[in-house]
């Protein structure tokens, strides 16, 4: 991801949760819980941001490493970690497009509302594929371009502002990118028509 985008997120990190609180409570909280509940074993969360997912993990069955490219966002995530008293949680500043983990390191990878911002989605997905163990799963909760043209009109308008403010695209075709990378897509759940999708994908070998 670009350093400019990372700086933008760092600059708003202290107010980011406040800014997103309404949509988080009304729309996304339940979906985060559902996505995170699927993970167990050695888990990597990419684009962890301010740590919104941390409270929803089952600590008895999860060994979690969380990364983000923004120093400011990680500082907020560190406070959440401290409040949860989750000492074993590893927080690292790292870009999903270029991760420092060995091949076949994780049982699960979690990505929630991340690939709208990744500058090179294919490279990010390639890295996720690399660090997953054979048979491991990637859980993607992402918003993306709809199959409905009327909805895309609104997304196009939103995209005009979101790309300029935070480098966030509303028109990514993330599900197609996941499939093209060679993941076996096991299931897709659509929400808000199909703008938000929960995609469960497996690395076969």
From TrEMBL:
- Report the residue ranges that make up the Methyltransferase type domain in this protein: 44-140
Please list the coiled coil stretches.
Answer: none
Q: What transmembrane ranges does the database entry give?
A: none
**Biological process GO terms, please?**
methylation
What GO molecular function terms would the record report? methyltransferase activity
Keyword terms: Methyltransferase, Transferase
Pfam families under this entry?
Methyltransf_11
Is the Transferase keyword given for this protein?
A: yes
UniProt keyword Cell inner membrane present: no
Listed name of the protein: Methyltransferase domain-containing protein
